[in-house]
Amino acid sequence: MTKATAEARANIALIKYWGQSDPRLNLPLTSSISMTVDKLVTRTTVEPDASLKADTLSINGVAQAGAPLARAQRHLDRLRQRAGSAAFCRVASENTFAASAGLASSASAFAALTVAGFAALGAKVSEREMTTFARLGSGSAARSIHGGFVEWRAGPTHEASYAEPLAPASHLDLHDVVVVLSEGEKKVGSSEGHGLAETSPLNAGRVARVPALLAEVREGILHRDIKKLGRAAQEDALLMHAVMMTSTPSLLYWTPGTVAGLHAVRRWREEGLMVYATIDAGPNLHLLCAGRDAPEAARRAREELAPAALLDNAPGEGARLVAAHLF
Amino acid sequence: MTKATAEARANIALIKYWGQSDPRLNLPLTSSISMTVDKLVTRTTVEPDASLKADTLSINGVAQAGAPLARAQRHLDRLRQRAGSAAFCRVASENTFAASAGLASSASAFAALTVAGFAALGAKVSEREMTTFARLGSGSAARSIHGGFVEWRAGPTHEASYAEPLAPASHLDLHDVVVVLSEGEKKVGSSEGHGLAETSPLNAGRVARVPALLAEVREGILHRDIKKLGRAAQEDALLMHAVMMTSTPSLLYWTPGTVAGLHAVRRWREEGLMVYATIDAGPNLHLLCAGRDAPEAARRAREELAPAALLDNAPGEGARLVAAHLF
Q1: Where in chain A is the domain with CATH 3.30.70.890?
Q2: How confident is the model over B186-206, as a mean pLDDT?
Q3: pTM surpassing 0.90?
């Protein structure tokens, strides 16, 4: 066994993951497509220690208990079972961004934990299998195993629900300018929210529409057509939030700033700036645009939307081991 | 022929009219239920005049041309055909509220025009037929023919698509506190918007859900259960706006104030004030609550939502002839 450190990056879904066909395995109702981003990084060290009676977890230097610890422990149990190991681990994780603010920190967290955990426990698994284990920790973590543009195939089984690269980060200079409108914690996290998707009378309509939108985003990526992928991504984000706000209970993640941003983005596009908006399970806007337009999009967002923070992401690399020491 | 004056009131839909099976006849995709309100009044005088070469229209004292005049003329053509008359008319209409701000002025306008027009042209038509003719002018005008609580049955034909009373205004002291967030004109009026409903992948889901919501609102009215009808009305409003924002083009009628209001209403309910929100094709919030709670709902809205105007409506009377003079 080794002490292993891995880095993984968050991803922004262009076609969203919302709703599950199997909550136990995090099998999604639809396939999804994302871009791994470069500036939302989780760095996680896993250190097996025979003297431990249970796994421990610190996040940004703060020892965790309760639900976050239990969730990490459950994930380590899965990794141990696959690795044929019984060793408890000391886990230390650092994020470059606020957790639970809709910046998809669980994706980078479980991607990093999976890569570091398997390395620390001495299991050799393929990249594809790595994505399926990351998925068991947090669905969208499957996508953060890969860099650039990634599709997570819904799949009917654990093995068939894996993520695969569509194009590397260097293929298309799409940016994700994150307009942080709130760094507060969400009332209903996305893990709970997934279970509500099918309570919306509109969910089946979204699920039926997604295959066409997936095809448009794939084509947009392939042909470097940001307009095509941006339109499809924006439509899908509105579909997801429509499902959310009409579920029982109703999930209204939007704030006044979110709506101001949606109107502003439309106006900017009418004024000739090719920018589209997507929104995860939170209030923040993600502005999708070409890298050359990102400074202008960020400038307008700063002037007109009074964000708490702004983050201009380029396509980022996949999860990788940055250190592994035998001990 | 006579000079005739009629008054009609706007209505707030508890289950919305959105989308048409026949745009020419304004046949809706679903039935709808509304409450006629007491404070949004249109008063219209129709005066046939053998010396006129064409119909004329004034609204709030201002002579109209272009689209508003043409729409009134088309409606008068229908009334003339039914009445067996060829007389052009002088029409003068007064509203107690701003037109085209999502306060459903076309409902009261076409209800008043239909009642005054038939009286002026000397046609005797039943109340049911009156609602079908009001519908040809503006779909929701069918509901404003009746006072109190009204259902407009979708109907497969002109004759079968009529409105009928569910309960008189005196049956239930439901209030509609209108929180006016914008008095500006809408970019896309609801007449155009109806044609977009079926471009949304979510429309079929709403249409399938509406019968159950209609039943809940009917029961809520019958049993004076404001909680039951309020929940159903609020769900339906979110369903309609979900359809609107996911149509092509996307109709985002909400402003930041709309979302602030939706969050506020949820908070007020958690704090024990039984109030629900509905939203027409515009940004304004309509707070549905018992009459005894309306002053408190209005007070909170004034303090927290910075409205441009507030209007506390009780259930109102149906359209009626207020003067008819032989000449």
Answers
A1: 174-313
A2: 88
A3: yes
Give the closest-approach CA distance of B203 to chain A in angstroms.
8
> In this predicted model, what pLDDT tens digit does every residue of A41-76 receive, in sequence order?
999 999 999 999 999 999 999 999 999 999 999 999
CB of A201 less than 8 A from some CB of B:
yes
pLDDT in tens, A87-106: 999 999 999 876 545 565 89
Inter-chain touch A250–B235, beta carbons under 8 Å: yes
User: What residue ranges in A113-257 does DSSP mark as E strands?
Assistant: 149-152, 163-167, 174-180
B324 interfaces chain A, CB cutoff of 8 Å: no
Distance from CA of A158 to the nearest CA of B (A): 29
- The whole-number pLDDT of residue A97 equals 73
Q: Candidates 3.30.200.20, 3.10.580.10, 3.30.230.10, 1.20.1560.10; correct CATH number of B4-170? A: 3.30.230.10
Contact B238 A255 (CB under 8 A): no
Residue ranges of E strands in chain B:
2-15, 20-22, 27-28, 32-48, 56-59, 62-63, 89-95, 149-152, 163-167, 174-180, 275-278, 285-290, 309-313, 320-326
Among the ranges given (A68-82, A144-158, B25-39, B187-201), the one the predictor scored with the smallest mean pLDDT: B187-201
Q: Which candidate, B111, B139, B90, B120, places its Cα nearest to that of B42?
A: B111
Q: Is the domain B174-313 a CATH 3.50.30.50 member? A: no
> Min CA distance, B306 vs chain A (Å)?
13
User: In terms of C-beta density within 10 A (0-12 exposed, 13-18 middle, 19 or more buried), how is residue A319 classed?
Assistant: buried
Three-state DSSP class for residue B40: strand
Say whether residue B306 is in contact with chain A using an 8 A CB cutoff. Answer: no
Query: How far apart, in whole angstroms, are the C-alpha atoms of residue B268 and residue B131?
Result: 37
| pLDDT higher than 90, residue B83 | yes
